[in-house]
Amino acid sequence: MSIFWSSTAAALTPYVPGEQPAEGSMIKLNTNENPYPPSPVVLEAIRRAVDGNLRLYPDPNASRLTAAIAARFALTPGEVFVGNGSDEILAFAFQAFFDRDQPVLFPDVTYSFYSVYANLFNLPFTTVPLDGQFRILPADYQRPNSGIILPNPNAPTAIGLPLRQIRELLEGNAGHVVIVDEAYIDFGGESAVPLIAEYPNLLVIHTLSKSRSLAGLRVGYALGQPELIEGLNRVKNSFNSYTLDRLALVGAEASFMDEAYTRSNITRIVQTRENTRSALERLGFSVTDSEANFLFVSHPAMPAPVIFRKLREQGILVRYFDKPRIDDYLRITVGTDTEMAALLKAMVEIL
Ligand code: PMP
């Protein structure tokens, strides 16, 4: 341990992100990126911004992007907060809404950044077990808490929670913020955005990293009633007076000008996902119901870490989690049809 570290830094267990190998060196199915490029409209807007005024600071309030997002969801700009990826918004939300008196609740199998942020901000948390089929049971969240956070669909299970169950969570926890992290919602889940008008305790978080092919731009946004958005702004403005850089602002705004492009990629990915699911099932895999751009799979005849290693040797990177309950599973991002054909061919050789 370094003599320079504070006791806080020494106590931290940082998040370990999925591997990012040298570009083009592997078939990369390990971090749920979109296999298709961003819309040409986005790329053109960024090119123009590169030739424009990068010497000037960006709009601290991200007004144009905020207005475009508000228009897209029939909300007001006061109901929208934008950030550098949804990870940054999650960090702000943990500080804005959760406290030390009661634990924040989240599923025992979920996005691993939640426990990292709880530890970083010194917030107590309780993990709520999924049931035997990896489902979230809203009744289990009726216990003292300072707030709830869960992804819908959940990651890495890919399983979605129906809207009526989100309602149950919101109604059972009226005095506390319920954060629904909809990073993968565009691939088939039921979005909670239409519930925002009804529930002042609901915050929905979206990202441009998945369905909009912009993981490299780092843009996410949160939607909720103005009081919650104000809470996020207080934390953010205490941390950084500029919201996004100029390229991210214009690129993200342009993405909302080309919805047809995003929709057609989603359709392709969902089709590929279902074809891949059937093919994996024919090879003996069990595959959870996916409403996301990834598949959560296990094989009765071969341990997941062995499949992971053998795929890696063949240049295919998927995600393995060395964690209780899910160490028999692999999470496989849905790539192009060509990438999935290579994956299936490799699986046939391995099994
Ligand atoms: N939430 C979930 C459930 C995720 O899987 C991810 C992606 N790793 C994120 C949030 C963060 O996405 P980003 O910061 O790229 O918006």
Automatic annotation (TrEMBL):
A single MF term (Gene Ontology): histidinol-phosphate transaminase activity
PROSITE patterns on file: AA_TRANSFER_CLASS_2
Known partners and oligomeric status: Homodimer.
Enzyme Commission number(s) from the entry: 2.6.1.9
PANTHER family: HISTIDINOL-PHOSPHATE AMINOTRANSFERASE, HISTIDINOL-PHOSPHATE AMINOTRANSFERASE 2
Aminotransferase class I/classII large domain ranges (all copies): 26-346
Name of the protein in question: Histidinol-phosphate aminotransferase
Residues recorded with modification N6-(pyridoxal phosphate)lysine: K210
Keyword Amino-acid biosynthesis attached: yes
Keywords carried by this UniProt record: Amino-acid biosynthesis, Aminotransferase, Histidine biosynthesis, Pyridoxal phosphate, Transferase
Signal peptide extent: none
Top-level EC class: transferase
Gene that this polypeptide is encoded by: hisC_3
Membrane spanning stretches: none
Protein family per UniProt: Belongs to the class-II pyridoxal-phosphate-dependent aminotransferase family. Histidinol-phosphate aminotransferase subfamily.
Protein's UniProt keywords contain Nucleus: no
Pfam families with a match to the protein in the record: Aminotran_1_2
Known cofactor(s): pyridoxal 5'-phosphate
Pathway: Amino-acid biosynthesis; L-histidine biosynthesis; L-histidine from 5-phospho-alpha-D-ribose 1-diphosphate: step 7/9
